[in-house]
Design goal:
By secondary structure, the chain is mainly alpha-helical. The protein is built from eleven helices and no strands. The longest helix has 40 residues, at 142-181. The termini are close together.
């Protein structure tokens, strides 16, 4: 999954974690008393043995979305902490993001690493032959250019995700209020479970925002440079599924496989 889209998906996943149970709780059991047997539950005719079922593997527990975010930005300061960019660098980012995207999209191992930890993704790509060759063609230093590219990318994500998290928390609080108003119509155990899930979802979103806010930057100059090119950056790195241009549905990413 692309990193910028992952940020939005993580918040959405947190919302689903408490919306889905609330809907199923209202559905209840079928009316009419006894539940009808499901297909495949019928007993076999007398004299015939019931076929033995193969033991099913227990599904692996899904990793907490906030844990994923914390891992994604872990130790990023070691890569971009001493790197700063200016407006010309932002223009250069926008100009070349499509070329870099095509280069990184073709590398499955890089895409895997860029979804897990950005520092590890940097360490992998900076030594990649195709990356080094691309930088040589452009006349830039492979290490310095990638650090700056990553700094621009994560700084933009940091600024934008703050609003995404704020809106998510407001939606969670609104849903919690709605559930409180429905308390009298719900089973007490279901209500308690829903409230626990809502509170956990809010904590997860707050943890996700805290994780991304640990990424270095921006300086006042960097913030000004990104603000001056907010529209172009939004097309290069759609953070909320904006429609139109490169940032429409299924739109482009930041050009780093994210």
């Amino acid at each position: 999954m692309k990193t910028t889209q992952l940020l939005v998906a993580l918040v959405a996943a947190g919302a689903v974690s408490f919306f889905a149970p609330a809907l199923t709780a209202q559905m209840g059991q079928p009316k009419g008393g006894e539940e009808k047997p499901k297909a495949g539950d019928e007993k076999p005719p007398a004299g015939k043995e019931e076929p033995k079922e193969e033991p099913k593997e227990e599904p692996k527990a899904e990793e907490n979305q906030a844990d994923k975010m914390e891992k994604l930005f872990k130790n990023l300061d070691a890569v971009t902490g001493k790197t700063e960019f200016n407006e010309d660098d932002v223009k250069n980012f926008i100009k070349h993001h499509e070329e870099i995207k095509k280069l990184t999209d073709a590398d499955a191992e890089f895409k895997k690493k860029s979804d897990a930890n950005l520092k590890e993704a940097f360490e992998y790509l900076v030594k990649n032959e195709k990356w080094v060759a691309w930088c040589k063609e452009k006349g830039v230093d492979a290490d310095a250019y990638l650090r700056k590219h990553l700094r621009i990318m994560t700084t933009y994500m940091k600024i934008k995700f703050e609003d995404i998290a704020k809106n998510a928390v407001e939606n969670i609080d609104g849903f919690k209020k709605m559930l409180e108003e429905m308390k009298g119509e719900m089973d007490e155990a279901d209500y308690k479970k829903q409230m626990e899930q809502i509170d956990q979802a809010k904590k997860d979103v707050e943890r996700m925002n805290k994780a991304i806010q640990t990424s270095p930057g921006p300086t006042e100059a960097e913030k000004k440079a990104l603000t001056a090119h907010d529209e172009e950056m939004g097309k290069a790195m759609p953070m909320g599924g904006e429609e139109g241009g490169e940032g429409g549905e299924g739109g482009d990413d930041d050009g780093m496989g994210n």
